Amino acid sequence: MKIETISLHTKVIPLKKPFKTALRTVTSIENVFVFLKLENGIVGIGSAAPTVAITGDSTEGIKDIIKNVLAPLLVNKDIHNLNFLLTAIQNACIGNTSAKAAVEIALYDGYSKLLGLPLYTLLGGKKTLLENDMTVSVDSAENMANEAKKLISEGFSILKIKVGKNGEKDIERILAVRKAVGPSVSLRIDANQGWRAKEAVKIIQSLERQQVNLTLVEQPVDATDIEGLKFVKEHVFTPIMADESLFSTRDAIRLLENKAVDFLNIKLMKTGGIRNALTIASIAQSYNVECMIGSMMEASISVVAAAHVAASHPNITMIDLDAPLWLEDLTVDHHILKEKIILSEDSGIGISHNSLSISV
Ligand SMILES: [Mg+2]
After folding, report:
1. Is this structure's pTM higher than 0.90?
2. How many whole angstroms separate alpha carbon 33 and alpha carbon 47?
3. Which sites bind Mg(2+) (predicted)?
4. What CATH number did the domain enclosing 252 receive?
5. Can you give the residue range of the structural domain that contains 323?
6. Most buried one in 149, 212, 240, 315, CB count within 10 A?
7. 24 annotated to a ligand binding site
């Protein structure tokens, strides 16, 4: 079954409220949608989220790479050669992981639609109900505590708390949130590279002494500081997770061989798509290191694709896919329902290109 055309569409989606981390403040997002049309009319869809601060990928860069580098490798090729096509995409250029991810998602979606199977079935899994978290932006301790309380009343039982703006204030922020939500709520802390290694140890040890139980601390130090991650991990009891330090399968091996972290956070926009995400989860499994799947500030298509990956891999045990809940326009989302993600039994990722109101 030949791939006939690959077309792109860009969409700006406003956020309901600003999303603030130690790295950036976001008020709207722009996503690039990929439509991969097969000769029988089936359309596979994918999307990419430009995050220059994290991946280096811009909207124009993503469009250019897909149009001029990736699409020519796929047009007129047989989609039944899926693994060979995926390899060609990964080998086509250095970096550009967001563009590669969008095209991979469209390929997997088109292929599973062609076979008439949900993507998670194609990938060999059947966890169709996933427990999601919700993020609290970095803000004053009082505002963060109020927001956390509100989210718990809405049904969330896992919160991701963004910090990394100022060490002393971060302790106050986390203490205020814990006080507001009580002891049973799972708190995942994300410093987004905002601390130095010794500072991170001081902060986390202080929270441990005050018996603020934290499920994990994500990326306490700079992405390139693998020794710093290891230093933090070795000086605290709280599990440490890599996010911005992990893009490729080789990054995963380096982190795991160095015993630098307790957990990995996999995102399709960093790995360059689904196949590397699955490979990283399997590599981590052989080191007994569990994985979370997360996303950038992305529209539903790529986030739902990430949920299919999570549904199919036993070593992805944590879900951080709240991005669509921040958007004014859910881009046809019937899957991500607050604290629960329910994947449909429709073929592919379960989203039809017709529901996007974009002509292909
Ligand atoms: Mg993170």
Report:
1. yes
2. 4
3. 190, 218, 243
4. 3.20.20.120
5. 122-354
6. 240
7. yes
